[in-house]
Known about the structure:
By secondary structure, the protein is of the alpha/beta class. The protein has a single domain (18-251), classed as Rossmann fold, CATH 3.40.50. 32% of the residues lie in helices and 24% in strands. It has a five-stranded mixed beta barrel. β7, α4 and β8 (186-188) form a beta-alpha-beta unit. α2 (74-86) packs parallel to α5.
Amino acid sequence: MEKDTAVIKPANPKHWPSCHNRTAVMVSSPADLKDIVKQAGLSGIRPHVFMNSRMYCDPKTPAKACIVGPFTGAPYAVMLLETIVAWGIERVIFFGWCGSLCEDVGIGDMIIPAYALPGEGTSPHYCSASEKSEKTLPSGELNSLIIDQCHEMDLSCHIGPVWTTDAVFRETPEIIEEYQEMGALAVEMETSALFAAGAFRCIDIAAVLAVSDELHSFSWKTGFGSNRFKRARKNAIELILAITGKLEKVCSP
Length: 253
């Protein structure tokens, strides 16, 4: 990692949470945040509030993963990531939604990004000049753990690149076609920046995405309220908690 000469630092010991977890799940959707907090048994925990988000940690179980969210967009997602890394987080699983760019990927499917194609403005600040505009990568070992867990739970998933954009209302047919030609399975708003920042800060990071809508035919088909999408979100949460459960055993003293 290159020397960090930034003027503003995320670390602020006066406001550190009392938990010493090393694994975090970053959840973009408020509804998913509520569900995963409940299923993780953290509903009774008073969250640590910072910026416009919350962190749920169990101070009695330091090895247990903490849950962070909600958030939208690359800049804010990376602000959260920087902050929790300064607090000691070493592993992050990101859970978000995405829109399909491939006719073989439908609403209610799940995607494990093999890499992300940056179309946002945050990741270039975390990449060298030679890396700018190139793909950003998850951590291989953590990504493999997610894929293996999918197989173990008999969950179907697509593995491939995704495109990250800042401009959800500027996904034109020309731009969609460009990223389709680059092999992108879907479009969303955070992954490439989180991967870039994670690599810069030398942490393990990977992502799980649920397909909420489709754009591959250059018209917008939504599925936000569909049973298939609700089931995908439920499966993704169960998948992530199964993985963090395994990480807890590895990380416990």
